Amino acid sequence: MLLETSYSIEKWDVDHPRYADFLDCVKVAASEQMGFLHQSYFQNYPCYLQVALQDHQVVGFLQFAVMPIGTEFKCPALTLDGRTLFEAKIHAFAVHPAFRNRGIGTALQRGAIHWARQLGCYQLASQSSYDREANYHVKLSLGFAVQPERHGDNEYGVYFIMPLNPITDPVENT
């Protein structure tokens, strides 16, 4: 029996009538990420959400915030020639376990790269715990650079960056 591999990627926001379906997918696919969706930290920045749908079911998601580079780490915003550089910071990404290994995660990452470029971001960034090999595979296959790190709680993690290079002002609420 062949697995159905037809899916679509849509841009949603918190006012989408099926936003609760997205939250249900987060609970099943990556419940540990639920806090990143509701933390006041990311609410200070414009956030952008993509969902993957198969047979009208939410089977994956990727959400990022657009922020000045550096501010997340309590540094001054990075500037070049007097212009602030922005990054799209992925803070939620997963595919429902029953729908993995079908290209959905890669499609969501590609969509984020494209959308972040449209928004005028200089780079796309993401952090992950050290044990997420499937996440590494997707990001490294797309050309992300990787930097291992050790968090203050002595946990290992990795930081991914995809240079996008536009030096423009980010687009408001696209």
Q: Overview of this structure, please?
A:
The chain is of the alpha+beta class and 174 residues long. It is globular, with a radius of gyration of 16 Å. It has helices at 19-30, 34-38, 40-43, 104-118, 133-141, and strands at 8-12, 47-54, 57-68, 79-80, 83-84, 86-95, 123-129, 145-150, 156-163. The chain has one domain: Gcn5-related N-acetyltransferase (GNAT) (Aminopeptidase). The strands form 2 sheets. Strands 1-2-3-6-7-9-8 form a 7-stranded mixed beta sheet, sandwiched between helices. The protein contains 5 helices and 9 strands. It starts with 7 loop residues before the first strand and ends in an 11-residue tail after the last strand. Helix content is 26%, strand content 34%.
Task: Give the SSE layout.
Layout: E1 8-12, H1 19-30, H2 34-38, H3 40-43, E2 47-54, E3 57-68, E4 79-80, E5 83-84, E6 86-95, H4 104-118, E7 123-129, H5 133-141, E8 145-150, E9 156-163
Parallel strand pairs: 6-7
Antiparallel strand pairs: 1-2, 2-3, 3-6, 4-5, 7-9, 8-9
Number of domains: 1
Q: Determine the number of helices (DSSP H or I, runs of at least 4 residues).
A: 5
Name the poorly predicted regions. none
Strand order in the sheet with the most strands: 1-2-3-6-7-9-8
Helix percentage: 25-40%
CATH class category label:
Alpha Beta
Distance between the termini: 41 Å
Molecular shape: globular
In short:
The protein is α+β, with helices and mostly antiparallel strands and 174 residues long. It has helices at residues 19-30, 34-38, 40-43, 104-118, 133-141, and strands at residues 8-12, 47-54, 57-68, 79-80, 83-84, 86-95, 123-129, 145-150, 156-163.
